Amino acid sequence: MHNHNTYDAIIVGGGISGLLAALTLGKKGNSVLLLEKTDALGGNCRTYEPEDYPGWRVDTGIHAITDLIYGPLNQLKHYFEPGKFPTFRRHYDYYLRKKNGLEKFPSTLPGFLKMKALPAKDKVILARELLNAVISRAIFREKHKAVYDVISKYRLSKKTTQFVSALSYLLSGLSMEKTSVSRLLDGCGFSSGGKRGVIGRIAETAKLFNNFGYRSQGYPLGGIQSITDGVVASFPKKVEYHTGEEVWKIEKDETGFCVSTPKADYLSDKVIYSGEVKKLPGIIEMPVEWSRQVKQLEQATAMTIWLGLKEPMTEFNYNGSEVFCDIRDSDKELFYWLMPVPELAPRNKGLVGVSTIIDPKNCRDSEEKLLNTIYSLMPAVEDNIEMIHTQVMVPEKAAVSLNYFPSIKTPVNGLYVVGTDTDMRSMGITRAGYSVLELLKSL
Hints:
Elements: E1 4-7, E2 9-12, H1 16-27, E3 32-35, E4 47-48, E5 58-59, H2 72-76, E6 88-90, E7 93-98, E8 101-104, H3 109-114, H4 120-140, H5 147-151, H6 158-172, H7 181-187, H8 198-204, E9 218-220, H9 225-233, E10 239-242, E11 249-253, E12 256-260, E13 265-268, E14 271-273, H10 288-294, E15 301-309, E16 320-324, E17 336-340, E18 350-358, H11 363-377, E19 385-393, E20 415-417, H12 428-442
Parallel strand pairs: 1-13, 2-3, 2-14, 3-10, 7-16, 14-20
Antiparallel strand pairs: 4-5, 6-9, 7-8, 11-12, 12-13, 15-18, 15-19, 16-17, 17-18
């Protein structure tokens, strides 16, 4: 016979959005039960030791946390217990990797025009379109034009087309045809996406000429796990969590919700679902049109390869990350995003993570191409490798596309959704944080 337990709120899913929801609701005095189907909390917000390489530690994917100054983590900071909020080192700049070294990725329009990586004619065209896009967004709130629709009007060089394509995949996980101009503006730092009112948005166009780069981005010392650990360590006594307990069914009647797992039934008048929204209709009856819309949400698959270096290399002696996209050979990937993470390496060794978007059906081929790209640009890396650890994952529950995104409130009264398929601002942990702030407003 099942045990019946009653809570003020039940949270389904123990990724970072579910954990933050549990923390905030618990601190507001609610009794909370969080149910996670795997044996570990955190989802993609985890750091672990690869089985075959004791002493090495890697994050689940590469992370540069955005909007640290005014964004959601800073707004949620007061929910953490004293000393439990992570310390971040600043992620200073992004770079373009070329065979003769690095070129800083520009954060202003004049800087973009001086960039050496692209032909002069193409830079003028892109700069003009960038200016038009920022002004159109500021005045008319135009958001949903595809990047491809903008650049396809011109005969841009192959190098420039690859560059724009790489940025699209990097910032949305999708192609130019499915990536909005708005997402590129936000991701490249030319717009925050958070200003409200015409005057505020127009004032923000000054960022095109006077932008301080990526000063609001950072990396948590001790690894991405420190965010998960800080949240869990800050849980009040009213927050209970179960790992290894998958939710099979959610039922709603006039008295509230019954959340069923193989181990027990749990009762509550509020349920917050933090898994993939497109899977929600599989465990609770939802309106047909809503179910149809969420099934349209698109996902991207990322491959991250962690390279453990026998000793640190001067090629990675910078505090930030790099992108390479000028690929001509068929045995190399279209682009990569690489980030040195020396904090996780054993003493006197080095660690870099390199990631790209892949076709999940061709994992082995993608791994070979990604490694070949790194070795061709920096041949010294290949002879300096002590550890290779590959991860294949879905970095976001939904890629930022031109399609429909659900709101925090669902059509079922008392049922809410949070996570990276419910908010389009920023990426990863920051995006999950925004969704939790919207949840608190809805409640």
